[in-house]
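hey so u asked for the seq, here:
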Amino acid sequence: MVILGILAVVLGVKFSDSNAPALSEAEIFKSYLRYAQLRAMGDISTWGIETVSSNQYKIVTANPDLATKVTLPGAGSATRTLPTGVTMTQNIKIYFDSRGRPVSNTLKEYPLNNTWPTTYTNDVTVTFSGSENTAVTVTSQTGFVP
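ran it, structure tokens below
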């Protein structure tokens, strides 16, 4: 009985869902990154995600016709607020060009003077913090979000 009790405590702690809100928000963030990337691939303007604060981020575009009309799917607005107890890395600006590549921290229409924007040379990691940290990584050159 003692052994079963110890196993129950260990498994209960190991499979606790106390980090579920941070994990959930990381998955939602990934879907919004993919959405921004797809929108950029159908446009000549960059699209991306920027943090507003440690508990908010928004979708943005350089397309002047859509800049004030863009919304996150299912959110009804351009900004998403994280639930209480979940925060994220601040000062994140992840933009995608029309080829779907993550590019320099500038919203622009491309190609500008027949030049393409500078792609990231390093992966970008965004961390969501709850009871534990959960990381979302955007792969440089391709924009893949595993």
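The mean pLDDT is 85. Helices lie at 2-14, 20-41.
lmk if thats what u needed
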